[in-house]
Amino acid sequence: MTQTGRPQQARSLATRERLVRATIDEIHAVGYHAATTHRIAERAQVSRGALLHHFPSRSDLVRAALETLLDDGTAEIRAVSQDVRTGALPLADFVDFLWPLFSGRFFQVSMELITESRTDAALRESLIPVVQRFHAALDAIWVEFCDAEARPPREARIILNLTVNLLRGMGVQTVLRPDPEYFRDLIEAWKAVLPQLISGPAGDAAFAGPRFSREGGVAAPELGTSLANTPLANTSLADRATTRLAKRADTCPTNRSALVTSKP
């Protein structure tokens, strides 16, 4: 690339970035329908022609905006989760970090697009791959919270996705229920429960059913199937829970083990 080409490419990338950020800001400020390409171009301080050069259609622009929004959120979540993983940050603080993320701007913009996608098939098909990539990235982050021997990957994903879904549902409620104390009570209660799910008996109880249980590497049958001829048939729930706790005694990170017995 020539020396002349590099500054031109940099300007092009900067213009594209401004348009994407302006789209996120405009949707957050006025909602999906009112966030027209004209308003977005004005907010980004670029011409209408420049917008169409980078994004021939509004759906292209919206897709790029959601990609950026979710990539930013993933990066933030990954960074904070690493602090939890190393013990630099208590698990309870991670919940406090997630709450404003899944009830604030990040959540509100994504909810605008989710709501519109319900009845706009073209938009829905465009955004599904973007959202799938986001959830795949989150699943990978969740698995890092505890070693496989302490909490198998599937269980780790379920526990942390439960957390996200709880907070996201609470975020929906905030629109018509402006009651911070109500939500703080729910958050504090979940902060007390979450360590027990990750490395305590509550998690063993949650995953002791036939859909999740494994013994000697043999998967338990689906719900509604008889256990009579499986290795689990003569194993009590208490025995299985005790065995799993013993296996995890030396594998869970110290800060999470401490959280199990500490008061929130």
Automatic annotation (TrEMBL):
Residues in the DNA-binding region annotation: 36-55
Protein name stated in the entry: TetR/AcrR family transcriptional regulator
Top-level taxonomic group: Bacteria
Transmembrane intervals: none
Keyword DNA-binding listed: yes
Entries under Gene3D superfamilies matching the protein: Tetracycline Repressor, domain 2
Lineage, broadest ranks: Bacteria, Pseudomonadati, Pseudomonadota, Alphaproteobacteria, Hyphomicrobiales
Presence of keyword Metal-binding: no
GO molecular function terms noted in the UniProt entry: DNA-binding transcription factor activity; transcription cis-regulatory region binding
